[in-house]
Amino acid sequence: MKTPSQLKAQSITDLVASLLIPVHNKSLLVPNIVIAEVVALQMISPLPEAPSWALGSILWRGEQVPVMSFEIANSEIHGRDSEQARLAVLNAASGQSRFKYFAILVQGIPRMIKLTAADVQEDKLASLGQGERMAVITQLGKAVIPDMDYLEALLDKL
User: Which segments constitute the CheW-like domain (predicted)?
Assistant: First the structure.
């Protein structure tokens, strides 16, 4: 059992509510605040002359939101979608894009995880793709922190 001083040292403000988002062969670790909503997979309207990572767009809350394949944006192969595929709608917070939101096709239901800085260790042995900022190890396993600036900058190509 933790002593009162240990509890005080690890206050609520030290915890970061995050989500582990399953994509093909890995999980993305993002702060909860990045995710606007996870929605059921729906009809994705194609975008003419779009890059291969741009799967199309969806209508979400009255807005056209571009949908991307994280795997293709990260120079990987986008495999067959699982039966539990969903769309994670993310807030475009960097200001680099004309879009306020964009969606990533995910392969299951994201898992909530609350972390402190001590709960996350860099996986220095992992090699990173261009869409990945850092590989990490958490109490729930390995994950990658996506490079949100890179992903949002890709949206300028639409």
Answer: 15-158
Residue with more model confidence, 10 or 78: 78
Rounded-to-integer distance, Cα 121 and Cα 97, Å: 30
d(CA 151, CA 72): 11
Amino acid (one-letter) located at 1: M
Tokens read off for 85: 């595929």
pLDDT attached to residue 1:
42
Report how far residue 104's alpha carbon sits from residue 48's, in angstroms, rounded to the nearest whole number: 18
C-alpha distances in Å from residue 64, one per residue of 47, 85, 105, 148: 11, 20, 15, 20
Q: Where along the chain do its domains lie? A: 18-119+149-157
Under CATH, domain 18-119+149-157 is a member of which superfamily?
Answer: CheA-289, Domain 4 (2.40.50.180)
Q: How many residues does the chain have?
A: 158
Cβ-contact 31, 117 below 8 angstroms = no
Closest-CA residue to 151 (of 46, 42, 66, 27): 66
